[in-house]
Amino acid sequence: MMNKTSCPRVSFDFTGRFLPPVYILVFIVGLVANGWGLKSLLHNWKKLGNVNVFVLNLGLTDVLYLLTLPFLVVYYFLKSKWIFGEAFCKITRFCFNVNLYGSIGFLTCISVYRYLAIVHPMRAMGRITVTHSVIISVMVWLLVSVQSLPDMFFTKASRNNRKKCFDTTDNPNVEEYLKYNLGWTLTGFCIPFLITLGCYGHVIVVLCRTNTIDKVLKHRSLKLSFILILLFSVCYIPYHVLRNLNLWSRVLTEQRICNDWYNGIYIAHQISRALVCLNSALNPLVYLHGHENIRAQLRRLIQQACQAVMQPSVTPTQFSLV
Fold it and tell me: Hey, what domains does the chain have and what are their CATH numbers?
């Protein structure tokens, strides 16, 4: 149903009820998981391959974003009133974008390295060094920062209420932002996603056809491939599709063109924001399934925790019988 008079009300209250619990959970789980993962990574640094440089940077992007979540929780608890200033609002949104596209970039680098190691091991052996990985990581940081920088020049606070902190921009600038975001989606997500899909698709085919690779290594590589494809599918695809649809609905609203599906798109977009936020807590799965030593440490920690919980406590009666 379409009309050009009055638009149906969008349920903006949904964001304030839905996102804060998600942010709190992701902050706690993500900070613990990434802290432990980075510590284990550095402890086993010499035993790991060149890909660990990308895994380290992946963890750093997560921590950078996780540290901004408490401010966003306060923002939504205050019913979308930003009390930290517009400059810090832009910094917070910039950190989110750097985390999002930095994660995509480093996961893409990991996928290319895995592809070379499995499909072209003789060509890659000895030719890829830690220095190469460091240079590529610096390039990823620079590229992601350059892509994210224009976002900071868009208005992030409402002209009628300076206490807002938009994750995109205000309505008068939304049409220009949609054009920018479509290009951003293409270069920051679609191209890396196709590269990752192509790499892991070829890796899965090679692993399934080859019988000379160690079964444990094959199983681990296949599992890592499925994890990263699942990570892209769950966290990143819905967010980019629904983000652009939500921006388009706002453009149409500014043009006095209204549809009944606007509210549904808005709510779905907020759910996709929660899913993309989860990537900061799920990325440590790369640590767990990429390196056997780290997985063994995790198993020991879980076993120790279970033993501590299951161990019966000593009662005063037992002391008196000794």
Answer: 14-295 (1.20.1070.10)
- Tallying the residues shown for the chain, one arrives at 322
In sequence order, the β-bridge partners of residue 3 are: 258
CA distance 113 to 52: 11
Measuring CA to CA, which residue among 136, 3, 24, 147 is closest to residue 75? 24
CA gyration radius, the chain: 23
Cβ atoms 260, 217 nearer than 8 A: no
Longest C-alpha distance within the chain, in Å? 86
Contacts of 263 (CB under 8 A, 6+ apart): 8, 9, 10, 11
Q: Enumerate the β-bridge partners of residue 2.
A: 259
Backbone φ, ψ for residue 259 (5° rounding): -135, 155
Query: pLDDT of the chain along its 322 residues, tens only?
Result: 444 456 667 777 888 889 999 999 999 999 988 888 888 777 766 665 678 888 889 999 999 999 999 999 999 998 888 998 888 999 999 999 999 999 999 989 988 988 888 888 777 766 778 888 899 999 999 999 999 999 999 988 765 556 788 999 988 899 999 999 999 999 999 999 999 999 988 888 888 887 777 777 777 777 777 877 888 888 899 999 999 999 999 999 888 888 888 889 999 999 999 999 998 888 887 766 655 555 555 556 556 556 665 665 444 444 333 3
- Whole-structure pTM over 0.90, yes or no? no
